Amino acid sequence: MNFNQHLFVLYTVNSLIEVSKRAPGRTLIQKTLFVANELHQLQVPFDFILYKHGPYSFDVDNAIHEMSSYRAVKVDPVSGYGVTITPGEGGKFVGKYGGSLLPEAKSAITEASRTLAPMNVKELERIATAVWIYYREGIREPGRISERLRQLKPHISDKGAQDAVGKLQDLLGCSAS
């Protein structure tokens, strides 16, 4: 078990609950870790790929599964679709064996949590993919980011892509050019 990974997941779960006052699902945890990593160059201990609904890490899902096995998190099915994830009584082992996060990591995750917690799954896909394009593909011009987003995700409308670029620009604190 990689308690360092578990530490990042547990802090993210707690941060998202604190911000939104509700338990997050897997998608929100995934996208929060990805955005925090890219915006703040955290080097989280997870590998991300561009997958069906945006950046995704099999490592994050494996960590959640491992954490549920020793009750560091509780994974509850949601009626209809998905799960919610809350801290569990086994979380004490994460701190004991995983150490602690650096203040910069905590700050980055908290900032990403504040931005992403109010978003629905479709918005999360769009903004996380726009972040991918900006950082991983090095495309900086807003029109080209929007175009690339539509190319990668044809189900996203022009307006949806433009909205994602606007949110990206807000995240960057300046124009994405």
SS strand fraction: 5-15%
Spatial order of the strands forming the largest sheet:
1-2
End-to-end distance, in Å?
41 Å
By helix and strand content, what is the structural category? mainly alpha
Q: State the order of secondary-structure elements, H for helix, E for strand.
A: HHEEHEEHHHHH
Compute the number of strand runs. Answer: 4
Overall average residue pLDDT: 94
> How would a textbook summarize the main sheet?
2 strands, antiparallel
- What helical percentage do the residues reach? 55-70%
Describe the protein's architecture and organization.
With 177 residues, the protein is mainly alpha-helical. The protein has 2 domains: 1-113; 119-177. It has helices at residues 3-20, 26-40, 58-69, 91-98, 103-116, 121-136, 142-152, 158-172; strands at residues 49-51, 54-56, 73-77, 83-87. Strands 1-2 form a two-stranded antiparallel sheet. A two-stranded antiparallel ribbon has the order 3-4. A hairpin with a 5-residue loop joins strand 3 (73-77) and strand 4 (83-87). Helix 1 (3-20) packs across helix 4 and helix 6 crosses helix 8 (158-172). The longest helix is centred in the N-terminal third of the chain and has 18 residues, at 3-20. It is globular.
Topology:
Elements: H1 3-20, H2 26-40, E1 49-51, E2 54-56, H3 58-69, E3 73-77, E4 83-87, H4 91-98, H5 103-116, H6 121-136, H7 142-152, H8 158-172
Keywords for this entry:
single chain, 177 residues, mainly alpha, 2 domains, two-stranded antiparallel ribbon, 8 helices, 4 strands, 9% strand, globular
